[in-house]
Specification:
The protein is built from 13 helices and 9 strands. By secondary structure, it is of the alpha/beta class.
């Protein structure tokens, strides 16, 4: 079965450019602003959307995304409401891939079978579950693949050639390369090192390789887009959302428009990177 992710990466490859992959946390800072940003992301240049599933203990995430989960949970975010955001998005966009990203606990709490049924019905395309290793594939990965969802796995600078085949065994959609050792938003990647790592991963798979963790500016996004099949930006967008909350906790007027303008600047960096390099 050809998924939305397959179609999107295939189209971008034919166009000769990298994907711009955005991350926001569902329900941050409340359901309506979160939906306004989510709905506007494709128009601002997002090719693929990662939607964070709010969780109390996001171990791999830095302060920005941890805070976004806390804001979302305080405003009443739940797994059902996260899936409802996707369902609302699908009312007007049936092409942009959406990948749910987060941790296994909220999925386990709902029940794997129930979660997968509701995720497919809502229009989810794939899953990134950072705390389930390949040794636990029967827990969620294999059922997700059978349900028609892509299961995207993380590779890191410490994933050596001996470990890569296990990481890639049931991976589909794309490979997410974590470009730094550490938590999200803690450092910025070096394009030269990223290019070498992407080339190494591609010796083991024909899947697209998207690179994330630490990309904060259009220039950094462009550097990564020249080296990989996709550039993932999360913490910088989440920080832009956080800046739209005033000292009293109220959301500023025009918040979504300013966040999306920032996203558009990042998208321009990704989309023009290879054309600029060829000049």
């Amino acid at each position: 079965m050809t998924t939305r992710l397959d179609k999107r990466f295939s189209r971008l490859k034919a166009e000769g450019r990298a994907a711009f992959v955005t991350f926001i946390t569902a329900g941050d800072p409340d359901a309506e602003l979160s939906f306004s940003v989510l709905k506007g992301l494709p128009g601002a240049g997002a090719d693929v959307i990662e939607l964070g599933m709010p969780f109390t203990d996001p171990m791999a995430d830095g302060p920005a995304i941890q805070a976004s989960s806390q804001r979302a949970l305080r405003s009443g975010a739940t797994m059902l409401k996260t899936l409802e955001l996707v369902r609302r998005f699908r009312e007007t966009d049936n092409e942009t891939p959406i990948v749910l990203m987060g941790y296994y606990n909220p999925i386990y709490h709902m029940g794997v079978e129930t979660f997968l049924t509701r995720a497919c019905e809502a229009g989810v395309d794939g899953l990134i579950v950072v705390d389930l290793p390949p040794e636990e594939d029967d827990e969620l990965c294999v059922p997700a693949l059978k349900a028609g969802l892509n299961f995207i796995r993380l590779a890191t600078p410490t994933t050596d050639d001996k470990r890569l085949p296990a990481v890639l065994a049931n991976t589909s959609g794309f490979v997410y390369y974590v470009s730094i050792t550490g938590i999200t938003g803690s450092a910025s990647p070096e394009a030269r090192n990223v290019a070498e790592s992407v080339a190494r991963i591609k010796r083991h798979t024909s899947l697209p390789v998207a690179v994330g963790f630490g990309i904060k500016t259009p220039e950094q996004a462009a550097d990564i887009a020249r080296a990989a099949d996709g550039a993932v930006v999360g913490s910088a967008i989440v920080d832009a959302i956080a800046r739209e909350i005033d000292a009293n906790g109220a959301i500023k007027s025009g918040a979504a428009e300013r966040v999306l303008a920032f996203v558009r600047s990042l998208a321009d960096g990704v989309h023009h990177a290879r054309a600029a390099a060829a000049e």
